[in-house]
Amino acid sequence: MFSYLPPVKHMRYVLQDVLSATRRLQGEAGFDELDDDLVRQVLDQAGRFASEVLFPLNASGDRQGCSFDNGEVRTPDGYAGAYRQFQEAGWAALACDPAHGGQGLPHVLNCALQEMMISANHAWTMYPGLLHGAYACLKEHGSEELKRRYLPRLVSGEWLATMCLTEPQAGSDVGLLRTRAVATDDGGYHISGSKIFISGGEHDLTENIVHLVLARIPDAPAGSRGISLFVVPKIRPDGSRNNVLCTGIEHKMGIRGSATCSLDFEQASGWLVGEPHRGLAAMFVMMNAARMLVGAQGLGIAEAVHQNAERYARERVQAKAVVRPPERGGHAADPIILHPPVRRLLATQRALVEGGRMMLYWSGLMLDLAERSPDAARRERLGQLLALVTPVVKAFLTQKGFDGASAALQVYGGYGVITETGVEQYLRDARVTMIYEGTNEIQAIDLVVRKIIGDGGASLGLLLRDIADTARAERAGPLGRYAAALATLADDLGAIGKRLSTPGATTPELPHWIAQDVLQLVGHGVMGWLWLRSARASLDDRDADTGFHDERLATAAHYFAYVFPETAASLAIVRQCLAGDGVAP
Fold this sequence. Notes:
Elements lengths: L7 H11 L2 H9 L6 H19 L3 H7 L2 E3 L2 E3 L4 H10 L18 H19 L5 H11 L2 H13 L3 E5 L15 E4 L5 E11 L9 E8 L10 E7 L10 E6 L10 E14 L5 H37 L24 H33 L3 H37 L10 H9 L8 H14 L4 H17 L5 H21 L9 H32 L4 H18 L2 H13 L7
Parallel strand pairs: 3-6
Antiparallel strand pairs: 1-2, 4-5, 5-9, 6-7, 7-9, 8-9
Helix pairs in contact: 1-3, 1-10, 2-10, 3-6, 4-6, 6-9, 6-10, 7-8, 7-9, 9-10, 9-11, 9-12, 10-11, 10-16, 10-17, 11-12, 11-13, 11-14, 11-16, 13-16, 14-15, 14-16, 15-16, 15-18, 16-17, 16-18
């Protein structure tokens, strides 16, 4: 039977031992009341909610899916009750400002909450998944009236939110959108147009749904520069139903319990968020939060399938192992976990799951420090780093999450494709994560063109200096081999960044051709850096829990021996292209 056990011990290890999150949040971000006991309580309670409330609805929700009838959407049985428990427990408010009813806890703890909920039930988690992004967008760009009207109810979870960008003719290229907004005499707007692929666009979990909609004001400039952002609620402030109609839901290969809706807006009442024609800048606050969430989806899926693949490998008996422990004696066959190819699959999964957790939580910690550090220069530096790594978190973790789900299914063999085993659902659920919130190809182009070339390699330089400093400190010690490999990659990335950022040094197309390879290099640069820090933490703390820390050290060794060398192929491609030998006509 497929199961899920929240990995709270490793979560605490990442937060406390690897990232020193509690100490840094207290000292640098003003979370004075935060301590390790509070962190443990939050993780324990979040794990209990995920495993005991959400996970039992996962397979049944996938089988049942959502139903649609005359504009109304019904979610799978149990979803609404689980949402009430989520709301009543205050999970929606976890990392929100107490001024709006939030608990005021760090974003990094919300990353942990999201990971566990996704591991337990990806489809259900889609519904509250955009709450924090909508909250952050309105908090930063909304008028005082919009903040007063919507923030408390979003923070409490009384209302849910959506992000309405995509149209039939305008997917990733939002500059092609046609939805129109016409000013009304009362200071609002009438919104007219159609949106598709809207997660949670209609459902039965909350009475109201707050749609954040991109649209054009008449005479707006063409392209993305002419887009504005509007709040368009399902229920108007006077209690009447707005002119927002769900015209259907998609029937999908995965996340079937999540309602993916088509919406028609017919002179629907809306209110401007931020400045006219500056809608994308405001929406990017929500989009960046969503990209972090999707990275968490890759991690959460990989964690759940790895747990089950490892358990199955201990139970499934097939053939004699090449080397078997003495206690196997005269048995005719061995558990498949004793076979080296299976052990390698599982060890690689573990390395990517634990490395992915460090990457996600490090990003969440940076978000906390970038928002709350008293040092303005420090906030700016961390903001640069966060902008650089956000597309990496999204694309790298979702690709590795899908790869992990595929590897887990491989461990199951023929049983993996059978619905009852559970692993095939996670593979189906994982596939869309590499597409929505900006395809992974777009994330790679964003990294290379907008972030690396766009600032002349300055942000990349900040990251590489941090990596090089850690590697330098470990060169002469027992982790010297890992440090040397990481330092070499940092040097290579620095040279690539410098070349790409030199005006006229490449053809206009070349950065786009190699963008995915550069993203893989940066992803392994960050993950390798964090694995080096993890190995140092486990060496220092080994006597406190020898078995646990020896597992971390063994996994670090596997990462650097079998996973980190992926960088060689990406480096070869990038170097060849930069030399002029690898660009397609």
